[in-house]
Amino acid sequence: MPAHLFVAARLRNLLARQPWIYWSAVIAIAVGAAFVVKSQLDGAEAARSSWEDTRPVLVARHDVDPDSPVVADTVELPVAAVPATAIDALPDGALAHRRIGAGEILVAADVVAAPGPARHATVGNVVVGLVDPLSPAAAIGLDVQVASDGVVLAAEATVVDVVGDVVFVEVRESDGPAVAAAAQAGRASLLFVP
Asked: Does the pLDDT value for residue 1 go beyond 70?
């Protein structure tokens, strides 16, 4: 007789002589299933109540291209469906930072109020203009480094705009003065990073 059949036969024999073992296992499984069902029902109730609480947010009235004025409407949406960075008021002169679709919830990263190249910068960073002979190779959104006299002045920089031979790069605020001084002296260069 194979081993697994032998074990099954012994178990059946034991349960036939000791029915309390069988019923104890049945009760334990039923109690475990009841706890699982209760926790699922509690979770469903919490999710349902999170959909009842609402908050006002702005949604785009129509499609908006980057650098275009943003027109939005205020709507009440369930808190569970609202991103953490959703905004409920537009700054004066708000422009789209990126393309926004009609009906899309506006978040802080979608709109900018600063004019000029700084409108593309992340809060806490600054934008510096560099005249660089490699400016045709610089594309918006490209990650670069800024160096001068063999020293990296900004290890993390991003091209945010290119106007003629001027490349505008976003750098950390702490790196801004050194990059600006090198740019003013005509000694700043872009390093393209993979």
From this structure: no
- Give the Å distances, CA to CA, from 119 to 8, 48, 63, 110: 74, 40, 19, 11
The amino acid sitting at 50 is: S
CATH code, residues 54-112: 3.90.1210.10
Domain positions in the chain are: 3-51, 54-112, 119-192
Q: pLDDT band at residue 115, thresholds of 50, 70 and 90? A: low
Task: Give per-residue pLDDT as tens, 166-191.
Answer: 888 899 989 889 999 988 888 888 88
The contacts found for 32-37 with CB under 8 angstroms, 24 or more apart, are none
Contact 111, 90 (CB under 8 A): yes
